[in-house]
Amino acid sequence: MSALLPSSLPSPLPSPLRSLCVYCGASSGHDPAHAAMARALGAAMAARGIALVYGGGHVGLMGIIADAVLAAGGEVTGVIPTALVSTEISHERVTHLHVVRDMHERKALMAEKADGFIALPGGIGTLEELFEVMTWLQLGYHAKPVAVLNVQGFYDGLFAFLDTQQEAGFLRPEHRALLIQESEPGALLDRLAAFSMPEGVSFFSRRAASTLGP
What we know:
The chain has a single domain (19-192), classed as 3-Layer(aba) Sandwich (Rossmann fold), CATH 3.40.50.450. Helix content is 40%, strand content 14%. The protein is built from 8 helices and 7 strands. Strands 4-3-2-1-5-6-7 form a 7-stranded parallel beta sheet, sandwiched between helices. The radius of gyration is 17 Å and the shape is globular.
């Protein structure tokens, strides 16, 4: 929980969906469906005028979705730490490329520039990024939608484990319900655009957050 500390409580009203942060693998995976879905999501975002914010790489699903948005005439902002410029091969054709000091600064800037978050298939880093923004949503520190594009059941096991956490009393049902999932880009973007913080959601840190000031 590093860099996303907010300055105020979330608004219950939905905001325009101008940009989305997409977390995904620096690998394209073994199943071609993963790459195909990354392309489809990028094209759908550009068609709706939604800018892409992502990790700045040119390889794997990261590069595929960035190229898809650019090919469709959309805007792409990449954020990559100095240490990963050569490892992830920074994408030099994006609209804006920010080279930052470390992962903390990367995640903070990506979160700042996005109106919502989507996880595509990926590895440990993708999960870490997804759960950080989910944690801050659960804590009431932001009110941006968080979602998973569940390509061919890739995240079925993850959602089954969230159900296990809920059944064991470690995850509240209202917090479990905050994580959106769809298997098609259009349906997912529709739900993100319609998202507003549900009434009656109990936040762990609402009292603490109210002391942070404007």
